[in-house]
Write a structure and sequence with these properties.
The structure holds 2 protein chains of 2 kinds. The radius of gyration of chain A is 15 Å and the shape is globular. Chain A is α/β, with parallel strands linked by helices. Chain A contains 5 helices and 9 strands. Chain A has a single domain, classed as Glutaredoxin, CATH 3.40.30.10. Chain B is of the alpha+beta class. Chain B has one domain: 3-Layer(aba) Sandwich (Glutaredoxin), CATH 3.40.30.10. Helices cover about 45% and strands about 15% of the residues of chain B. Chain B has 7 helices and 5 strands; from the N terminus they run E-E-H-E-H-H-H-H-H-E-E-H. In chain B, strand 4 and strand 5 form a beta hairpin. In chain B, helix 2 runs antiparallel to helix 3. Classes of the chains: A alpha/beta, B alpha+beta. At the A-B interface, helix 1 and helix 5 of A face helix 6 of B.
């Protein structure tokens, strides 16, 4: 069976470290840009690898569902911006892919999910609430696509809190 | 963390094998997905091999981001189901999964004993879009993480389904 990688993701209740990373050659995205709405951070090891593609394809299809919660989806890997652009275009992704490229993996390290020996981040998901606090985090076993049930449950819980 | 089926198997499901079977295998599949195509003959063998000891349920999980014809194919299978021919259409779609454009789907359907006028009308009106979407979202909530995803007695099977992987997992359960 697959093992969970030996990383310790920042846990629920921890403030999400802010970051600013390029999404295109001339645009940058900061986590703090999304204050006031939930953000889904999907860290994945690499553009083009088959499992990542499936995971992100599923998330792309669920964008309208995420938007119903007012949530934004952001993909992050250590790939450079040109790889991200080609990958997003090839797969038809309409959400930002951020390049944690220089200094390599700095954001992944801040979130506790950088795999030093592989030079990639783990396949990790974070749901961050409108105040910038981590509401839920999860690391998938290597080679297993995490699915979206955990994300939707976390968004449900946030919505429940907001409604009460 | 094993994911569990959140939508219980019920009368609306497409089932082969008895309701009271000892093991229930649920597949979430996409007609245009090559891995599902690879699983198709394996599952067929398994159904034959297990006989009345296993029930097989198929639910739709078209990943349209990757497979542009998967949604129409799923709706076509449901339209055939409305005329009592779900499994015939299901098999035809998997046997021809390389060419599932709208015209090809009609050509396939014409091989079956369907009221074609009704079938075409159902597809044009997107009569089964909600059904397919309900399958899809139920799958997402159950942790379906790509296709094919299998659930054995309600627990997501994260092992290797290729070769005799599924058969061994099910045989082990049957003891």
């Amino acid at each position: 069976m697959s093992q969970s990688p030996t990383v310790t993701p920042l846990a629920a209740g921890t403030p999400a470290p802010d970051f600013t990373l390029p999404s295109t050659p001339d645009q940058k995205v900061s986590l703090s840009d999304f204050r006031g709405q939930p953000v889904i951070l999907a860290f994945y090891p690499a553009d083009w690898s088959p499992v990542c593609g499936d995971e992100l394809a599923l998330f792309q299809q669920l964008l309208p569902e995420f938007h119903r919660y007012g949530a934004e989806l952001i993909g992050i890997s250590v790939d450079g911006i040109w790889s991200h652009l080609a990958f997003a275009k090839d797969r038809g992704f309409h959400f930002p892919l951020l390049a944690d490229f220089h200094p390599k993996g700095a954001v992944a390290k801040a979130y506790g999910i950088y795999l030093d020996d592989q030079g990639e981040c783990a396949r990790a998901l974070f749901v961050i609430d409108g105040e910038g606090m981590i509401a839920w985090s999860y690391v998938s076993p290597i080679g297993i696509n995490p699915g979206a049930d955990g994300i939707l449950s976390a968004l449900d819980a946030l919505q429940g809190k907001a409604d009460s | 963390m094993a994911s569990h089926l959140t939508i219980p198997v019920g009368p609306d499901d497409h089932r082969q094998g008895p309701e009271t079977a000892a093991v229930i295998l649920v597949e979430y599949g996409d007609y245009e997905c090559p891995y599902c195509g690879q699983a198709f003959p394996l599952v067929k063998d398994l159904i034959r091999q297990m006989g009345d000891r296993m029930a097989f349920i198929f639910r739709n999980f078209p990943i349209t981001t990757s497979h542009p014809h998967a949604e129409l194919a799923a709706e076509a299978a449901e339209a055939a189901a409305a005329q009592g021919m779900f499994w015939d259409m299901h098999d035809l779609l998997y046997e021809h999964q390389q060419s599932l454009g709208p015209d090809q789907i009609l050509t396939l359907a014409a091989q079956l004993d369907l009221d074609m006028e009704r079938f075409e009308e159902d597809l044009t009106q997107r009569r089964f879009r909600d059904r397919v979407q309900a399958d899809f979202m139920g799958g997402v909530r159950s942790g379906v993480n790509g296709t094919p995803s299998f659930f054995i007695d309600g627990v997501r099977f994260d092992g290797n389904w290729t070769g005799d992987g599924l058969t061994r997992a099910i045989t082990r359960l049957l003891g």
